[in-house]
Amino acid sequence: MTMTQDELKKAVAQAAIAHVPADCIVGVGTGSTANFFIDELGKIKHRIRGAVASSEASAKRLQGHGIEVVSLNDAGSLPVYVDGADEITRHMHMIKGGGGALTREKIVAAASRKFVCVCDASKLVDVLGKFPLPIEVIPMARSYVARQVVVLGGQPKLREGFTTDNGNIILDVHGLNILNPVELETTLNNIAGVVTNGLFARRPADVLLLGTPGGVQTLTA
Ligand code: 5RP
Predict the structure, then answer these.
(1) What angle do CA 188, 175, 169 make, to 5 degrees?
(2) Which is the closest atom of ligand 1 to the Cα of 100?
(3) I want to staple 112 with a disulfide (CB 3.0 to 4.6 A). Which of 78, 98, 159, 178 is the partner?
(4) Per-block mean pLDDT, blocks of 10 residues, the chain (221 long)
(5) What's the whole-model pTM score?
């Protein structure tokens, strides 16, 4: 029996619950897979103290389930962060930000001791870059950052009609074949006007729960 992509996402979301310690504040990502995880959290909400959300959309969904949303400043260090990815390698390097929440995602991931990535099998790649790399940019720097990205070999495209939760714009960079994600993450973040980019390589995932038709596979770096 073939499983739909949504069924695979739901399966990994269910598997991620095993990584949530009792009585903790859990870091929660953004996107359709993270939404399935939030729905699973709703079922065990009496076993957790609350959640730190990586976007306004996730905060709203968590609250809809009656889960208390705590600010990261009040929560301190988190035991676990659960989120999806647009692409991930076996080295646990990721492209994220398809939903535009990359900056808050990177902050919550950085403040978490364990990053559990939840994906369907289509997200596992050998080399990052087929999925356009999102960069969050301060609006006045749009044109400057775009020119610098062209120098680095990318083709930036403004995400039309989109503003991040932080009031900034997104440039989606096409045409990159990312052989050294750690280096490129740093290089892009050093361009003036870049808030952050969607490469999650300096702080990779610790565990990947991969939804395959044969079941959920657990991978570690
Ligand atoms: C949002 C993200 C998401 O994790 C990423 O886009 C994957 O989303 P989905 O689970 O819907 O495929 O980084 O900014």
Answers:
(1) 50
(2) 14
(3) 78
(4) 89 98 98 98 98 98 98 98 98 98 98 98 97 98 98 98 98 95 98 98 98 96 84
(5) 0.97
